[in-house]
Amino acid sequence: MKPEVRLADQEHRDRAVNDLSESYIIEAAAGTGKTTVLVGRILNLIRRGEANLEEIVAITFTEKAAGELKVKLREELEKATLAASDSVQDHRLSKAISSLERMQVTTIHSFCASLLRERPVEAGLDPNFEVADELTASLLRTDVWDEWLAREMDTEDPSLRRAVLLGITTNQLEKLGQAMLNHRDVLHYLPSPDPKIEGSIDRFIKSLKEWMKELNRLKGQCKKPDEDRAFQKIEELNDQVVELESLPSEEEKEVFIFRKLSIGSTDRLGAQARWKTKEDLEEVRKVISQISEAVDEVKAGMADSVLTGLTKRLVNYVQSYEKAKQERNYLDFNDLLLYTRQLLKEHIEVRQYFRQRYKFLLVDEFQDTDPLQAEIVFFLSEMDKKTPALEWSDVKVSPKRLFLVGDPKQSIYRFRRADIEMYEDVKKGMGSERLLTISQNFRCAPSIVRVANKIFQELIQRSTYGDYQPDYVSLHFGRKQNTVPPQHGLVLLCPPEDRKFVFTDAEDQRTWESRCIASFIQKLVGEEKWQVWDESLQSMRPVGLRDVAILMRTYSSLEYLENALRSYDVDYRVVGGRYFYKRQEVEQLLAVLRAVDNPHDKVALIAALRSPFFGISDEEIFIFHEEGGELNYLKGAKGTPLEKPFFLLRELHEIRNQTSVAAVLHRFYLATRGLILFLLKPQGEQRVANLIKIGDVARALAERGTLSFRGFVRWLAERQEEEAEEEEPPTLERGDEFVKLMTIHRAKGLEFPVVILADLAHQGKKGRDFIVDRKGHRIAIKVGGQDDQFWTRNFEDLSKWEEIRGEAEERRLLYVAMTRARDFSVLPLYWVKDKNGEPQIPEMSFLKYLQDYFPRPGEVPFGQWKDDIMFYDTKKLELQIEGSSAFRSKLNPEMEGGEVSKGILTERIKWKNSKEELKKQAGKGRSITTATEEVKAAEEVEKDDEWLVSPVTRGEGAVFGKLVHQLFEKLDWSQPDLLEKMAEIEGKDLGATGSMIKRAGEMVREAINSAILQRVIKSSNYQKEVPFTYKNNGTIFEGVMDVVFKEGDGLVVLDFKTDFVKKDDLKSRIEHYKPQVRVYSDAIKTIFGKPPKEVILFFLHPMEPVSV
Hints:
Layout: H1 10-18, E1 24-28, H2 34-47, E2 56-60, H3 63-82, H4 87-98, E3 104-107, H5 108-118, H6 120-123, E4 130-131, H7 134-154, H8 158-166, H9 170-182, H10 200-218, H11 229-246, H12 250-259, H13 278-328, E5 330-331, H14 333-346, H15 348-357, E6 360-363, H16 371-380, E7 402-406, H17 420-430, E8 435-438, E9 440-441, H18 446-459, E10 476-477, E11 489-493, H19 506-526, E12 531-534, E13 539-542, E14 548-552, H20 558-567, E15 572-574, H21 584-597, H22 602-610, H23 618-626, H24 643-655, H25 661-672, H26 674-679, H27 684-703, H28 709-721, E16 739-743, H29 744-747, E17 752-757, E18 770-773, E19 778-783, E20 790-791, H30 795-818, E21 821-828, E22 834-835, E23 838-839, H31 846-850, E24 864-866, E25 869-871, H32 898-923, E26 929-930, H33 959-970, H34 979-990, H35 994-1008, H36 1011-1019, E27 1022-1032, E28 1035-1047, E29 1050-1057, H37 1066-1088, E30 1094-1099, E31 1104-1107
Parallel strand pairs: 1-7, 1-8, 2-3, 2-6, 4-5, 6-7, 9-10, 11-21, 11-25, 14-16, 14-17, 15-16, 17-21, 26-28, 29-30
Antiparallel strand pairs: 12-13, 18-19, 19-20, 22-23, 24-25, 27-28, 28-29, 30-31
Helix pairs in contact: 1-2, 2-3, 3-4, 5-14, 7-13, 8-13, 9-13, 10-11, 10-13, 14-16, 19-20, 21-22, 21-24, 21-28, 25-27, 33-34, 33-35, 34-35
């Protein structure tokens, strides 16, 4: 977008685009058009003949950004070609367009993969290595961990045994192991064991005895021992010392000290009036305090010793993971960086080769780069010299070669190893003369720019104690004035002063704030006259739902927002990955899968029964249990509402290890009509898409290796627990009217006309459990919760170091959030508890940072615009949602008041029946006649009595029949060698049992060798699974014929039948299928003009072909 006046940063923009003689690092503030600068520099490199596109590398943060950059580059190349000043320029630009797809516009990981494939020998790799995506890598990590842990437990490794005895769980062990995997390039920073720990327990016990000797002498000075807490504490300690001394082994003593020995608080221990002298009590308190300090010290030594020993052992797990990848020829994403860094660092000739191959490197979003990425970029940008640098920090960057674009104020990915201090080191290495700043903002309305500058020039300031926070660079408004709506700026949503509600806890706060947001959106798009600029229309238009984005620090408030938006009939979509496995329908499905896997998991069973898949109420479960029913689906529940659910769960349990997970899910969905039911719920399409995606994920995992049913259930549970990244499948089209909900991290790089920042009172994390200080070459570790923590001795110091940096990033995260809005930035303020009229604002919350810049509660000028801020009159909003309250009623109809219960139960039965009918109606497709529907028999679909499917899974049809038909369809009849393997694969997908699979293979092989199929094969002109559609007297007939083959001048139809029928009963079965035969005959006649020569029914159990 061209500005109306000269930009404040025009000089730096011009140098960035036009000065190709120098390398630069560009600090581009939010909304300043950095992509335009990047593309402009690439165009000039081409125009001036500095390089061909194949010699330029543009590295982006995501694949999506790479695609968008390539599209933008193509557009600008085409424009530049039309405006070329001479034939030389025209030739260069035209050549660039034709070679654009060969240019490296990609992520750092993809770029590294290409380097490694080109020089695999020097990298020590098989050139055919496969990049393991996150799904594959996570599955491999789980498998390797399970094998490693089992092996270590069998050998009773001392460090593992000690850790488990002292209270570290296997889940905590695994979490620590994964953290070490993620930081395997710096494991040499792990702390070493403290040599002073040797003999510390003996020294402690010896000192403890001395202290107890003194306390036992002093306790005689207590006048009222039965009433005094200090005396009682001495007796408690005596008992603990006796127990400690009775333990035979050093190991048992250590466990006792760490897990049982506790002093508790020594404050105000004992009362002066109960002791003979004040000095006696003070001495008792002093000694007990010394014991307490000694206990803390010896426990700290144990914790440190346990963790240092444990991490040393876990290095072996990291090595096992490396070995497993090598065996499979895998590289994960971290490997791509590690191997490339080592390749360029250790092989100078390879470094020189790639420097000649790629003349220019342009890197976007450099503030969020991994330290390994920075090393790779520097090695490839080194100045020509006789002695190349051995460390990246010694590299002298060549003129021209390197172009970095970033904004340290938007560095928010520390959890992905981004290191702003590394960024600052790079900036220093480049030199201050190479630093350019662009700050003209083309996104935000002028009022938003002014407020952002006012707030962040104070919140974001460089510290004198480290480079963990940059200087703030003020934004300058650069948008065209005619694109700015008449009304724009910050909008504050504060609780109305006359509110008739109180906030007692975080749940209340989020509930009412979410209702306020939903009601505001409803008013905004329905009644308010606010407008936004539409770039495609080149004009103003009213605000629509598609203009609104709700951003959150985390997904912790999402449930409340979704409930409120549904209640106010506001369409929305959740964008982003970390909540997918936490979605309600996914959690409910996981409960079902856990119950299927383990019949004795009553928690999972009850959750499964209560889920919408089965819809069993708490009352029904209670009555079943009270009447003597056992909550175990292996036992059955005949004549109760739990009968069918138990039947299905038992059936799925029996086949879970004989078929694929995807097939189990398919059968479950069909049997319960669960997808149809979820489709009828709010956001139904998205819920169904999420459930289907779980099946897709199961198939993808199965393709990557053997995965048991239990393994899948565990994998799914782990993804849910760690909030793994996974996108919801899209169900809405671009341009649809819906509000977008996403985290601030997900919104990075995006912009929206209206942005609402929800849950401002959410308290940010204070620290991490695995802390890496790269500059200080330190790692500190904590394992466990508040009551059972293990930590390395350096953890306390390093956690303070980490907390400062985490808090600095929180401020940058708020900056990113507030600069996503084009026209309106909406802040719901003060939806928190208050005490004596003062809001209770959590530390390290966005609200804590913002409160000083806005009026306090009680001073809010509702309904006014003031200093670029609109104080919205929230009294206009409908915050109370009408709805019926829950009720409770006596369960036993024979009790007093039982008539009410009878009425309620009758209504519930009616409701359940109507729900079932609704599910049936929703599951019906359009009315159409098929060949099988013409079969006038009790059962419309062919079934095999030998393999009857349970009545619960009636919608699945005959699994055996399907398997046989699929084998006939997919197998090459002239080469049946792979029949048994194919039967196993297809059978598992369908959910067939082992005996079914074996019988199906035998049946198909016998059929292929039969005279009738040999007749088909010899015809050499046959087609399998022939679909047809024709119309007769206004009725549409459609279906599929198993085989149609040409014989002489006519066509023959062959249809396979898997009915379990004896030869004596063939006559009645043939009569049964005559309507179907008639449809096939009519189809051939209608389509080809004459009837078939013959229609043959091939009954496979007796191996009898019958011409009808």
